[in-house]
Write a structure and sequence with these properties.
Layout (H helix, E strand, L loop, with lengths): L4 E6 L2 H12 L4 E4 L2 E5 L4 E6 L22 E5 L3 H8 L5 E8 L4 E7 L5 E7 L2 H6 L2
Length: about 130
């Protein structure tokens, strides 16, 4: 089994796609107006419109109105300080500016327009670097 993707459900596909295009620095593939995906080397980030959840069954997914954010989307970056400078004025809701964590990653956290937590991180200790190789 291979982990394939994470999908965010939203009422504003275009707005969320624009946000992640800016954060990730790549354009989304748009196979349908109600669906987009960012194909990254390690995983795919998909964005689907709320109406697509009816294909999975009633009440299969909730949007931000449910106030349930148990997942953090994490992206390994080469230079956390450069990413912070690039995104500092773009991101509306910062949770944490670049901070070194006890496990050796330098991380910054913010919320996307739907309220989901996003963590960009760079391993900075030798142990943290080794874990990601």
């Amino acid at each position: 089994m291979n982990f394939a993707s994470v999908r965010i459900i939203t009422d504003d596909v275009d707005g969320l796609v624009a946000f992640y295009e800016h954060v990730l620095g790549i354009l989304a593939e748009r196979p349908a107006p109600v669906f987009a995906q960012f194909i990254l080397p390690s995983c795919t980030l998909a964005i689907g419109h709320t109406e697509t959840t009816t294909l999975f069954g009633v009440d299969s997914a909730n949007t931000a109105g449910a106030m349930n954010y148990p997942v953090i989307l994490e992206f390994h970056v080469a230079d956390i300080e450069a990413e912070y400078l690039r995104l500092e004025s773009y991101v509306d809701h910062w949770i944490q500016q670049p901070t070194t964590m006890p496990w050796g990653n330098r991380s910054m956290l913010f919320r996307d327009p739907e309220g989901n937590l996003v963590n960009l991180f760079e391993p900075v200790t030798e142990e943290a670097i080794q874990r990601l190789q």
